[in-house]
Design goal:
This protein is of the alpha/beta class. 40% of the residues lie in helices and 18% in strands. It folds into 2 domains: 2-254 and 295-326, NADP-dependent oxidoreductase domain (TIM Barrel); 259-291 and 333-358, no CATH class. β4 (62-66), α3 and β5 form a beta-alpha-beta unit. α1 (21-30) packs across α2 (44-54), α4 (103-115) crosses α5 and α7 packs across α8. The structure holds NADP nicotinamide-adenine-dinucleotide phosphate (NAP). Belongs to the aldo/keto reductase family.
Length: 359
């Protein structure tokens, strides 16, 4: 039996490829004992350094890492252990079904890694019902965890995977530092006022009410305290009506958010016939509006029991909620950059051709 602290300090998302040593140190000082990293984040060496310098006993920490993209699981975990400077992790996750060529074979390998003591428990991330079904067909040891994103806006959409996890004793972990404001702000603010806590703490209570482990992050010591203070609140702080009101508001969907204009086509119009010095090029950007969502939110800590044993159900993991969500913001930004680069290249090409023709 492995116990997992129900709030984790994450070192992915905004921290990917960054030196997070200071923030992990702050998190450990503040009281976080569960650290979440991944080979893909490239933050493991910094997490390892912070652990090493903390002087904390390894057994007092819960360390989660996740496999790298298309790297054999064994190599990935061994590499992670070396970077973290530890003999074992507490939880090793398949980051995404895209990260492994064969879901069933991957799970058999995960079981071997657990057997060898390189990880105390094994799980998955971003798995949908069909991926878990395939996994369970061959599993001698059930996935302990499925880490998927969760917020009130995707709760309804994610119910099938949440329910499936609950039915099979799989703990849901929710990276939910942020969520789009909008309809859910009203019931969240009302509950915050009644309880005399912050909206972030309310959303963490909501996640806890759904039975999910929270994976959060911040660079701020104040926010770390705010997140951890949720541990001191009774798990039943939110009434059924308040939870239902948040669910209901979330089911209406997130707000559209501000609209960003994204250039998608650059058309170069040359106005002929003109003498060489009067050449000019008119560039027309055709733009399309793209919804842009801002996210935000917070966390707490309590303990639930997870079992890696196929025969044991997870008694403490009732009422889970979760939802996988990619980051639309980042995708849009990448899209914008690519389109801008293509546009600039296109324009420069046209200008050069024209100059060649006119000279
Ligand atoms: N398995 C997966 O696929 C997956 C996916 C995503 C994330 N994760 C894990 O989950 C962790 C958390 O990820 P995330 O995507 O939720 O976090 P994130 O986007 O990386 O960072 C959260 C941000 O929210 C800000 N924030 C916190 N409270 C706020 C508030 N009340 N108002 C405004 N801003 C606020 C923080 O800013 P400050 O620093 O200024 O406080 C921080 O920059 C990751 O580090 C990673 O470990 C896993």
């Amino acid at each position: 039996m492995v116990y997992i602290p129900t709030i984790a300090f994450g070192t992915g998302s905004k921290w990917k490829w960054h030196d997070v040593t200071t923030y992990v140190q702050l998190a450990l000082e503040s009281g976080f004992s569960h650290l979440d990293t991944a080979a893909f984040y490239e933050t493991e060496p910094f997490v390892g350094r912070a652990i090493n310098e903390s002087g904390l006993s390894r057994k007092d920490l819960f360390l989660t890492t996740k496999c790298g993209l298309m790297i054999p699981l064994r190599n990935s975990l061994k590499d992670s252990l070396e970077k973290l400077g530890v003999e074992y992790v507490d939880l090793f996750l398949i980051y995404n079904h895209f990260f492994v060529p064969d879901i069933k074979e991957a799970w058999k390998e995960m079981e071997k890694l657990k057997e060898e003591g390189l990880t105390r428990s094994i799980g998955v991330s971003n798995y949908e019902v069909k991926h878990l079904r395939d996994t369970l067909k061959v599993a001698k040891v059930k996935p302990a965890v499925n880490q998927i994103s969760l917020n009130p806006y995707n709760y309804a959409e994610m119910r099938p995977i949440i329910d499936y996890c609950q039915e099979n004793g799989i703990v849901v972990e929710a990276p939910i530092t942020t969520y789009p404001g909008g309809p859910v702000d009203i019931p969240i603010t009302a509950a915050a006022l009644r309880l005399g806590i912050t909206p972030t703490q309310v959303i963490f209570l909501w996640v806890r009410a759904k039975g999910a482990v929270i994976v959060t992050t911040t660079s701020s010591k104040e926010r770390m305290k705010e997140y951890l203070a949720v541990n001191d609140l009774p798990p039943t702080s939110l009434t059924h009506e308040e939870i239902a009101a948040i669910d209901h508001a979330g089911a209406n969907g997130p707000p559209p958010g501000p609209v960003h204009l994204v250039p998608v086509v650059a058309v170069v119009v040359v106005v002929p016939p003109l003498p060489p010095l009067a050449d000019f090029v008119v560039v027309v950007f055709v733009v399309v509006p793209v919804p842009f969502q801002r996210r935000r939110c917070g966390f707490g800590r309590r303990k639930i029991t997870i079992s890696n044993d196929t025969d044991n159900d997870n008694a403490n993991n009732k009422n889970n909620t979760n939802a996988p969500s990619s980051s639309p913001t980042k995708l849009i930004l990448v899209g914008v950059i690519i389109i801008l680069l293509l546009s600039i290249t296109f324009i420069l090409g046209i200008v050069l051709v024209l100059m060649g023709l006119l000279c």
